[in-house]
Amino acid sequence: MQSIPIQHQIGCVILTALFIWAFSIAREPRGWRRLFQSIFSKSETFSVNKNKVIDETLKRYGIIVAMVILVADVSCFVLGVTHRFREKLRNLSPEQRESMQEINKYQKSSSGLNF
Description:
The protein is an all-alpha fold. It has one domain (6-112). It contains five helices and no strands. The protein has helices at residues 6-27, 29-40, 48-81, 83-90, 94-113. Helix 1 packs across helix 2 (29-40). The protein is elongated, with a radius of gyration of 24 Å.
């Protein structure tokens, strides 16, 4: 049994880490906003209303970004799992492909008769 190719494994690990990070930001935006503001912002520009709007925006867009990353992560995993099968199909000769298509047609037509 061959394993998932290393490119897909690395991609899954990186995308999973990004998903967890984005989801944690979306879940608790206040702590991440404070960290960002302490590093990059001046303390004179403090506004409660502005910070509340930033927190709500981080929560809304953080969930969207996290879900997009999750879809990419699952896609990468599925591509990795099906890699061996796709490579096998890519290496078939035209005669073998035609034979497989005929077998698939026969199986579909026979499965339609068995109710």
